[in-house]
Amino acid sequence: MTNKIVLKADSIVKYFYEPVKFEVLKKVSFEVKRGEFVALIGKSGSGKSTLLYVLSTMDTDYTGTLELNNEVLTNRKQNELADFRNRNIGFVFQFHYLLPEFSALDNVMLPALKLKKKSKEEIEEAAYKNLGLLGLQEQALKKANRLSGGQQQRVAIARALINEPAIIMGDEPTGNLDSKNTQIVFDIFRELSKERGQTIIAVTHDDDFAANCDRVIEMRDGVII
Amino acid sequence: MASVNNRISRTYLTSSPGQTIVAILGVVFGISMYVFMTGFMTGVNNTQTELAFSALAHVHIYNDRPADRSNIIQAVYPDAVVNISHPKIIKYTDGIKNSAAITALLKSQPEITSYTTQVNFNVFFKNTGNKINGTISGVDVQNEDKVFNISKYMVKGNWIDLEKRSDGIILGSELASNLSVSIGDNLNILTADGVSKNYKVIGLFETGVAGTDKIKGYININAARQVQAANAAFVTDIQININDYNQTEGLVNKLAPMVPYKVESWQMANEQLVAGSELRDIIAIAVSLTILLVAGFGIYNIMNMTINQKIKEIAILKAMGFSGNDVTQIFLTEAVIIGIVGGVLGMGFGLLISWVVNRVPFKIANLETLPMTYDWQDYVLAFIFGLIITVIAGYLPALKASKIDPVDIIRG
Ligand SMILES: Nc1ncnc2c1ncn2[C@@H]1O[C@H](COP(=O)(O)OP(=O)(O)OP(=O)(O)O)[C@@H](O)[C@H]1O
Ligand SMILES: [Mg+2]
């Protein structure tokens, strides 16, 4: 069961056309198993974020095939993909995008309210718990635009976890955090992958962080080396 | 799912109150103007109609000139060459002979609220040197008042006095001043048949319609028959009022085959009145719809602006798994809430404007203040129109928002 493949990328090729035609991802193929904690590293501009957007199903402008949780997601409709993301993927952006007019708590709750698998009370409880894990229980009712950069990033992580997704993807999820909070986030990811079998794929520039993961994938100029 | 979307809409509406209020005010303005304009126009039309009905019944029965039958040969032999010189169409009968049979028929019509019989004829009013051409209405005093509400227009004397005074006459105020007579004075009339008779002025009326006030006098119907040397059943006109003056057609169609005289509705006789009131209605609707449309554009602009500002947040929502439909729903809900709140406030504000305008003094022809109607159907209609326009104005930007590609925005 633990060796089941949860992510399969096959010959992913992606071009950018502006300002000139440019191949960002050059036949990228790899697999990730259930419960694996993977670090994606590489120099700036090597294509890590671009790959992560393809893997997260948000970017559909590529060739090759993408399979997540045994579902082929290439060439699916936008609305189906949105629903799939809601159920199966938690995403932490490189720039912590929260909804500024909502409280930290609301931001965390929204994906779960959308999923509607639990009652509002259960969701609120889980959201408080997640915020607590990340040391944010005090900030729960503050509006997102009143939080510091690092706090916002941690709220974004709490939000990515709320639906207990099979796959959590983070684009430098600890980029804005001090070493203490980076350690907290790392420990949470570690536990989720080990105890709950959730798969983590995190882009990172932090060598210590990468060194402690199950596996490191390194990219250079659009290929995995 | 709906509840999350509603919650997001509500948060957006309350977190930028300035924009929300401007959008709501747009709707309020549109709806209140619509309500006010239609109320005012209907008020004007009703006043116009009411004034017209002081001299006009809803349905009128009279002895018309007979149909032109001078060429009956052609009817029988269509191919014949016919040459008739100087045909004369002669009216053999004057007035309505069998009035009792007709009034009996009228009594059995449920939609008729009142009717009256009249003996009308042209006369010269004479007071020593003054001689004025005019008409006399010999009236059934009580029924005349039921149909035309004439007692309301009396400026001197009592209308009902005419009932007992066979030598009394009630004159239009302007006619009386042109003749230099006042209440209590004597007056001589001369009919087309050369009959001359003296009357005593027992009252003056003023309808505000100059054409009536200048030429008309009322006497008792029996006195009129006497002057015309007619029998006791003779009348020239029967005037009928019904429940709803817009529904004359049914009665006219029903009576026409049973009555051997001309049965005419007020609309047939006064097309200019009908045209005037319809044109005013069209203007009112055009003006108010334009206002609503302009308000709609305002909402469209505000919604567009909001969506451009929130483009990043829409991308995040989509990244988290909200579908295009959810996004449409979020912004459409905003528009509907703006529409409903603006609509309710607009109806209230419109009512207030109407109430104020209704109290502006305007003293012309029987009016004290500017006329106004308060018809709940106009209010409901304005509300529905307003809602439709806000929904359209909100739907177009919402559709645009639903098509946003999240990666493009998030990649920056
Ligand atoms: N929208 C875009 N249009 C054109 N080229 C782009 C676009 N986004 C990124 N690129 C280019 O694609 C390449 C890969 O970019 P990407 O953002 O994936 O790099 P990265 O590995 O995430 O870098 P970093 O570590 O700095 O975040 C870069 O050369 C970048 O200039
Ligand atoms: Mg990047």
Mean pLDDT of chain B: 88
The molecules bound to the chains, other than polymers, are:
adenosine-5'-triphosphate, magnesium ion
Look at the structure and name the CATH superfamily of chain A.
Answer: P-loop containing nucleotide triphosphate hydrolases
In terms of quaternary structure, what is this? heterodimer
Any chance you could write out the topology, listing elements then pairs?
The complex is a heterodimer of chains A (225) and B (412).
Chain A lengths: L4 E12 L5 E12 L3 E6 L5 H8 L7 E6 L2 E2 L5 H11 E4 L11 H12 L4 H14 L15 H13 L5 E5 L7 H18 L2 E5 L3 H5 L3 E6 L2 E2 L1
Parallel strand pairs in A: 3-8, 3-9, 6-7, 7-8
Antiparallel strand pairs in A: 1-2, 1-4, 4-5, 9-10
Helix pairs in contact in A: 3-4, 3-5, 4-5
Chain B lengths: L1 H14 L1 H36 L6 E4 L9 H5 L22 H9 L4 E16 L2 E10 L1 H8 L5 E3 L11 E5 H7 L6 E6 L4 E10 L4 H4 L2 E5 H8 L8 E6 L5 H8 L6 E4 H4 L1 H39 L1 H9 L4 H34 L18 H27 L3 H6 L1
Task: Explain what you see.
The complex is a heterodimer of chains A (225) and B (412). Chain A has helices at 48-55, 78-88, 104-115, 120-133, 149-161, 179-196, 207-211, and strands spanning 5-16, 22-33, 37-42, 63-68, 71-72, 89-92, 167-171, 199-203, 215-220, 223-224. With 225 residues, chain A is α/β, with parallel strands linked by helices. Chain A has a single domain (36-62, 76-224), classed as Rossmann fold. Chain A has a six-stranded mixed β-sheet, sandwiched between helices. Chain A is globular, with a radius of gyration of 17 Å. Chain B has a six-stranded mixed β-barrel, surrounded by four helices. With 412 residues, chain B is of the alpha+beta class. Chain B has two domains: 2-52 and 274-411, no CATH class; 59-68 and 91-269, no CATH class. The mean pLDDT of chain B is 88. In chain B, a hairpin with a 2-residue loop joins strand 2 and strand 3 (130-139). The chains are: A alpha/beta (225), B alpha+beta (412). The complex binds adenosine-5'-triphosphate (ATP) and magnesium ion. Magnesium ion (MG) binds next to helix 1 of chain A.
